[in-house]
Amino acid sequence: MNISIVGAGYVGLVTGVSLAEIGHNVVCIDTNKEKIEMLKIFKSPIYEPELEELISKNVKEGRLSFTHSYEEGFNNSNVIFIAVGTPSKENGKADLSAIENVASHISNFIKSNVIVVIKSTVPVGTNEYIKELLDKTNNSRFTIDIVSNPEFLREGSAINDIFNGDRIIIGAENNKASRVVEELYKPFNIPIFTTSIRSAEMIKYASNAFLATKISFINEISNLCEKLGANIDDVAIGMGKDKRIGNSFLNAGIGYGGSCFPKDTSALVQIAGNVDHNFMLLKSVIEVNKKQQMSLIEKAKKRFTSLKDLKIALLGLSFKPNTDDIRDAASIVISEELLNLGATVTAYDPVATKQAKKILNKNIYFTDSIEDAIKKANCVFILTEWEEIKKFDLSKLTELMIEPIVFDGRNCFTINQVSAHIIEYHSMGKESVINLN
Ligand SMILES: NC(=O)C1=CN([C@@H]2O[C@H](COP(=O)(O)OP(=O)(O)OC[C@H]3O[C@@H](n4cnc5c(N)ncnc54)[C@H](O)[C@@H]3O)[C@@H](O)[C@H]2O)C=CC1
Ligand SMILES: O=C(O)[C@H]1O[C@H](OP(=O)(O)OP(=O)(O)OC[C@H]2O[C@@H](n3ccc(=O)[nH]c3=O)[C@H](O)[C@@H]2O)[C@H](O)[C@@H](O)[C@@H]1O
Description:
By secondary structure, the chain is α/β, with parallel strands linked by helices.
């Protein structure tokens, strides 16, 4: 099948590459010329394990290409996937301007009937609204059917997720369009669930909101564990053994970040508000998360009284490991607050430094190694559970820091591991280890 993907971001690229890999002819269109030029020389604009290899393989085998021209991109299309961003506006609502923009170009360039598949996360009712826009502007002799097909991949494991997903959701305006999209996905061998367009849109928000709720819930339990002398690692394991609860998304930490949970939870509160529904539970989830992001600072303030003039090393800046994405990462608010409190901040991340330099405060000192970041530091904040950080030799903290004091926001080490070192270790939902000379 000839497929066009609009938006060569995370979702667009990974979808494009995976559809090419199963044998479709795919062209990815993006208005960002710089991205397209990089992709043409097999360079991925995002860091994602395995992605670059798959781009290069599929381009060389003739199934994948890139363009910034709609005319070229829609030329042979039977199916057009829209995977452009839907960021939050100031008021928390989803910004649909990129999708509206794409929709306004479709009928000008198509050469046959097409199915438009919306992969971007959009509020309930958006597919119908886009369908109206398409019909209104359709000056071609071809029909345009619409299908909602939300995406569930995670950054950092996107390739694995897309080939081994739990389900594919298809909400179509008619059976014919639904069958075409079902057929297109068949080689993935993933269960397909077909439903109405509005239910498909809601499944996406409900899924992200539920996962965010699970995280805020375990973080509240973790805060209680600290006060009551229980150990969150054991509590999460014990809870997770109940199959009705499940053992995933029970990692306590400094809250959720990234380009999706924060924006999608805010958008769902807005979507509910539009129909006079006060989504109290989700509002609390968001509040708990904001407070949780500040929890390391609260712990450090208690420990030192004042953070003024302390040198604090941040380890990990991305919102999770295996990605260079720092959109809505806890590192943004934490570093800003530390600077406000008068601390000097050094930072290290294995891959996100380039992105971080664009977004984080200019007064942060970025380093090329953990050792450089922690040298002569008064304390360390661990913000992302990168393998490199989890494997770091803790005796180097004792060797290089003024005082080896660690605030671990991602529970990278067990109490047993740290107990063997001359170190002071504060983590999430567990007793602190104070083992200084
Ligand atoms: N990042 C993720 O892990 C996931 C994201 N989603 C959803 O998928 C959508 C896309 O997200 P990302 O891939 O992260 O976005 P992104 O921001 O990484 O990429 C969007 C791309 O669209 C391009 N673009 C913007 N306007 C355009 C236009 N008019 N024509 C052509 N290209 C245009 C941008 O240049 C950019 O390259 C969002 O709705 C998001 O909520 C869903 C599941 C996972
Ligand atoms: O809609 C989206 O964009 C995507 O959002 C999330 O994926 P992603 O944001 O890439 O990453 P997650 O692994 O879900 O992590 C999100 C945040 O939650 C945090 N988290 C996750 C799990 C956990 O147990 N505890 C926890 O604090 C992570 O550190 C991270 O900051 C969902 O997991 C995907 O299914 C969805 O497609």
